[in-house]
Amino acid sequence: MSTKIITRLSQERGHADHGWLRTFHTFSFASYSDWSHEQFGCLRVINEDRVEPRTGFGTHPHREFEIFSYLIHGEIQHGDSMGNKEVLKRGDVQMTSAGTGIRHSEHAHGEEQLHFLQIWAMPYQRGLQPKYYNRRFTDEEKTNKLAMIVAPATAPGVTDTREGSGPTPIHAHLYVYASLLSPATAVTHTFPKPANASSPATKAYIHLIQKSGYNTGPAKGGKILLTGDGQTMELGEGDGAYLSSEAGKELKIENVGDRVVEFVLFDVDAA
Questions:
Q1: Which range marks the domain in which residue 81 is found?
Q2: Which residues pair with residue 251 across a beta bridge?
Q3: What's the pLDDT tens digit per position in 127-173?
């Protein structure tokens, strides 16, 4: 089976400007609906949000989702019905395993705009006890390498504690990597075994973070080139791509632009 690369261009995502919140939706979310982009494996939401200072999402409920935030710029103030209250900064990955139900709020803290990815995944088991986790990953840990920032709670090296070292636990078949890639530099990712042993392919998704601003037109800023099985595809900031391939095959990710780029790579439904 050959590697497949299908682009999800930035200007084709759902987007909205609410004044206090400017956002892009990779998958159907809120008032944005597109049957061809509902979810990808267990991955249900990738929202790239910019929240103005002293504003945010008031207290609201969730259940049966694994919800996490990847902080890009600014600070986020979190509070929830489990008693967790804290301010998170760049480098932090915050995970809420909603399970049977939680309520939480998220606000931009301080005087700077908050820029973060809000990501939801569907759990591999329903009815779990709600839990909250926080991990920190420095820019150095992500520079010119793929840093594993999220992994299944049962995977080797993952500690099921609120804070700790290693990847952030998630109750889903999902691994997430983050990278800061310098110009003319490349990293290689090997497709893992799928969680479903009868599946011939493993799926992944890559998103190039939109560091150059809230651009509703064609992608601007940094660029990466994806190469796998002889196929190539160039992505700009805000662009993403659906990926599928056999376990063991490799994907090369190369920075072909003039600035450092930041991206996240999701191994979706991986064992």
A1: 4-268
A2: 189
A3: 999 999 999 999 999 999 999 999 999 999 999 999 999 999 999 99
